RNA sequence: GCGGGCGUCGCCAAGUGGUUAAGGCAGCGGCUUGUGGCGCCGCUAUUCGGGGGUUCGAAUCCCCUCGCUCGCCCCA
């Protein structure tokens, strides 16, 4: 029979990994709450039109990476490839924006049909933040600070913030013409991909990795020079705020971003330890999106982080620090050993009352010799072992022993044991 | 979608045409049927991702296929 396995690019998270994910999620939740962000959850499945209109028909994400299908009612549905479009849709649909500005965060799986590689899966997970109804440039810096500080709280080092301004759509339309004209005269110097982009999405050429194209671009007219006076001032205010917050950044003229809805501030936080998929967090301002999806004109900033990439970085850094054996993280505090029959039944009841008192308890269910059970108790990483044998069952007592220190064994009435153990655990 | 590397037990792995597919870790059992950590002994792959082919004979050679992985691309 053919072996059943998970689909390509869809990863199982086994207990060892899951502990790391929970740590990131718990850290992020506390961090977001302090930043005054509220959580929003939207469906994984949306109408295809939402992404086509929101992200842009010409983008790679919409053009070739979406998981789309017709449902039983012949409606075109798509597994969300990113979070922002859904959040904006939900905010419009429920009139959230009529109640004033919204600071939201979200998390969960996204789907993109791509060839998997390190830090890139078909089902991947993002943590994202959206500030809806905030035109103030300092908010851009605040949003960036929230991302930057979260990464700091997670203990991730070796990160760089790259920053650019895309200006307004009018600025870009103007620049687009200038760039197309300039590059058009130099077509021959461009790589093949860039030549096709000349017609479809010329700004993306700025992001090309082709050495020939990059060399040519050094003398190209810059987007910064095409920005309006107002856009320039706006960008200056963002930089000023970042400097005041003591967050270092590097101006990156080639940073264009792949989704159509961005304008003004665009940024990425990258790591030098991730290989080809270096971006840990990416985002920017998207002032036109709400209106484009049928809502009131609303200025917004946001970003998204790749969970898998965070996990990759944390794992790598833990390995470098040679952190303690990870299996001990899930170790029970106490391990219950018993003989079969009546004693085992008492052990079952005792384990339940210990858990009710907040202790992490594991009970041996093997029914093998006490020596074996002790061996397993030791391997489980537990600190305490509790024994109920025939004699103890008869007397309704249990023996308590510290596995990691002297191993002195004491006998208590089963009813007293939770209190006794709790007192010992506290010191 | 395009290129490179790889696929032997739950994990790490030796084996590169010849009788029974090393070893280590983990697991299980025993020495020790009421007491762990050490040690010793034993058990755990009719089978080498899958399917064809070559050969007296294949994990080892050839073809196809699937998967993993790295890079391009794309992005979180």
From TrEMBL:
Localization in the cell: Cytoplasm
Binding site for L-histidine: 82-84, 112, 126, 130, 257, 261-262
Keyword Secreted belongs to the record: no
CDD domains to which the protein is assigned, alphabetical: HisRS-like_core
Database matches in InterPro entries: aa-tRNA-synth_II, aa-tRNA-synth_II/BPL/LPL, Anticodon-bd, Anticodon-bd_dom_sf, His-tRNA-ligase, HisRS-like_core, HisRS/HisZ
UniProt key word Protein biosynthesis: yes
Annotated keywords: Aminoacyl-tRNA synthetase, ATP-binding, Cytoplasm, Ligase, Nucleotide-binding, Protein biosynthesis
EC number(s) per entry: 6.1.1.21
Pfam families cross-referenced by the UniProt entry: HGTP_anticodon (PF03129), tRNA-synt_His (PF13393)
GO terms of biological process kind: histidyl-tRNA aminoacylation
Ranges where the Aminoacyl-transfer RNA synthetases class-II family profile domain occurs: 1-326
Quaternary structure (record): Homodimer.
Protein name: Histidine--tRNA ligase
Source organism: Aphanocapsa feldmannii 277cV
